[in-house]
Amino acid sequence: MNAKKPPVPVPLLMLIGIVAISFSSIFIKWSSAPASVQGMYRLLFTSLLMLPFARPYSGAAFALRRKDWVLLGFSGMMLALHFLLWMGSLKFTSVASSTMIMALEPVFIMIGCYVLYKEKSTLSAITGLGIAIFGTVFIGWGDIGLSPDNVKGDLLSIGGTAAVAVHMMVGQRLVSRMPSYLYSLIVFISASIVFAVYNVLAGIPFFDYPPKEWGIFVLLAVVPTVFGHILFNWLMQYVSATTVSMNILGEPVGASILAFLLLGEKLNGLQWTGGLLVMAGLAVYLYAGRKKTLGIEDSLPSAS
């Protein structure tokens, strides 16, 4: 972390980032295009924005081994699966429920790294994990009282969270051997290709969408990605990873407020209880001191 100060105050930049990533769910809700098309163009347009700045990393790209390219492709496939499931979840459940479940990403990573790498966490972190999972049960319980579709959306969001956790764990290994910018660019392009193949096989059209949809595709690439996750990555040179990682608690709150104002979505008592438990559990977990497993957030954009 660099001791110098950014040209704009850190709290203001963090607020901008939280608002930006909170709009991701809203844009997805506004779109009537299939989730696979939204995901494909979001990643494709983000890649196009990144390409002009990729030249300094060309040498590192040529130095990659065959095994690295295989892992990059697998990471891209997991990222595409994440977007497919999470974006799809928003067609069935509320923004609040979906984003609160998505906030469990660090918990999934902690579990995965324990299973795969035997990395252990502190008792405080495990306690936070338990509280967050208990809160997720409350969210699902509240959604059961609404409709079966809401529960389906919750399950899709859980699947999307698991997929992005795998994506991040693979990335943890890769960014130790290559620049994070290059990793992100290649994975975004790989995921775009996965989506393209999926859309071809599913018979989903690529171009038959009104101007409104194309505008949303661009907004998804620019607002939550550039002014959200890439901004957070840039902030890592000025503040600690733990400080930036706490923004994961801001997205469900911001998205829920925006969903209430722009979509008229409301939560019942059980959903509010579950959401508060998830946020409290994550706060305990993150403040307990995250293991190096989650250090990948220092260099990789989040997926939501």
From TrEMBL:
The chain crosses the membrane at residues 12-33, 39-57, 69-89, 95-116, 123-141, 153-170, 182-202, 214-232, 244-263, 269-288. It is found in: Endomembrane system. Residues 12-140, 152-286 form the EamA domain. Keywords: Membrane, Transmembrane, Transmembrane helix. Belongs to the EamA transporter family. The keyword Transmembrane applies. It is a multi-pass membrane protein. Its main location: membrane. The keyword Magnesium does not apply. It comes from Paenibacillus auburnensis. InterPro entries: EamA_dom (IPR000620), EmrE-like (IPR037185). This is EamA domain-containing protein.
